[in-house]
Amino acid sequence: MSVLDSELAETLTDALSAFDIPQACVVTRMVESGPPFDPVLTPVDHACSGWIDNYTQIDHVDSAVQINDRKAFVVSSSLDITPTTADQFKLGGVSYSIVNVQRDPAGACWVIQARA
């Protein structure tokens, strides 16, 4: 548990919502069902709130961030799962692969490296 957890995360989430920054988005996870010898993969959508931003030029220097990657933010309290690199992120009709997932220091958002 961090000093930044809970109260600061709630304050940041409230501030973002007050300025209508988060938009409706979806994290899609493929869920396996059926027998192990013939599994069926079914996409399951998890609605959430978030927004897309661009990486700065310095983020592209000597890193795994590609030129067309986007930085997606998902409000943690709006998502009922922990996103992984096996999931997909969708906002505004555009689907992205999740390349990397981190949590911001306050715990208010998931920060996702998204690749179209």
Descriptive account of the structure:
The protein has 116 residues and is mainly beta. It contains two helices and six strands. Strands 1-2-3-6-5-4 form a six-stranded antiparallel β-barrel. It is globular. The mean pLDDT is 88.
What keywords describe this structure?
116 residues, mainly beta, 6-stranded antiparallel barrel, 2 helices, 6 strands
- Please, what is the oligomeric state? single chain
Number of strands: 6
Question: What does the largest sheet look like?
Answer: 6 strands, antiparallel, barrel
| Average residue-wise pLDDT | 88
Q: How much helix, percentage-wise, in residues?
A: 10-25%
What is the N-to-C succession of helices and strands?
Answer: HEEHEEEE
Unreliably modeled segments: none
Distance between the termini: 34 Å
DSSP summary: helix tally:
2
What is the radius of gyration computed over CA atoms, rounded to a whole number of angstroms? Answer: 16 Å
Shape label: globular
State the strand order across the main sheet. 1-2-3-6-5-4
Strand content: over 45%
**Sheet/helix structural class:** mainly beta
Characterize this entry briefly:
A hairpin with a 5-residue loop joins strand 5 and strand 6 (109-115). The protein has 2 helices and 6 strands; from the N terminus they run αββαββββ.
Any chance you could write out the topology, listing elements then pairs?
Blueprint: H1 7-18, E1 23-33, E2 40-54, H2 57-60, E3 70-75, E4 88-91, E5 94-103, E6 109-115
